[in-house]
């Protein structure tokens, strides 16, 4: 029962890490009932009352209570073993909330998913992405590091870490991390994201020609990627390319930044501002 109580405390703490919900409350109640029945005085009285009504003899009741304790341990242990499965469930719920635009609910679900399954790389990655969306880059960077500790080949985690480093002004560190991601990139989608951020890091480090080179590589993968086109427009402006070339680049940035995400809205607003300046010029 000492082990059972320890498992119960761990389960309750993990389940409540992301705030209450129906499944959390039900699981907690079941776990506490299973644990408290043989340990508390009320639980023992209830057990004795039940055993008396089942007409179990006095000399057998200690054995019966021992059996209840063993059953409680087995059931609580089963709940503890199932926590990683619950972690995957909450990760899926968080992703649904994220797609629906409910970032607060998504953050709660991702937090609980990671608490229930600390080694779950996908859950850690989604939690870090959620922190990026609310601007907590330092904490997101730390979690991306944990993601790579769980899975060194998760290419998008390198991209996320690189982005947080750019936002913290650590451009040289970002370039190194992004190149590490490119070394393990598994598909064009990941390679595109890594190249787009690499171009952004080069530009922030005032290495515009290198930025232009990697952004052109990104456009070879997807000419309609908003982030790449917006970064390339900024590169053209930095290099003082002809106004018409800058104008075309910013128009592409505006045309492709159509998602409802905050990052796309920010890119679209930047493109409009630069197009106004070019028009006035």
Structure, described:
The chain has 281 residues and is mainly α. Among the domains are: 2-81, no CATH class; 223-281, no CATH class. The protein is built from 15 helices and no strands. The model has no long low-confidence stretch (mean pLDDT 82).
Q: What would the principal axes of the Cα set say about the shape?
A: elongated
List how many beta strands DSSP finds: 0
Describe the largest sheet: none
Distance between the termini: 78 Å
Reading the helices and strands in chain order gives HHHHHHHHHHHHHHH
Q: Which structural class is indicated by helix and strand composition?
A: mainly alpha
Query: What is the residue-mean pLDDT, rounded to a whole number?
Result: 82
The count of helical stretches stands at 15
The amount of beta strand, in percent, is under 5%
Q: Which ranges are low-confidence, i.e. pLDDT below 50, for 5 or more consecutive residues?
A: none
Percent in helix:
over 70%
Radius of gyration: 27 Å
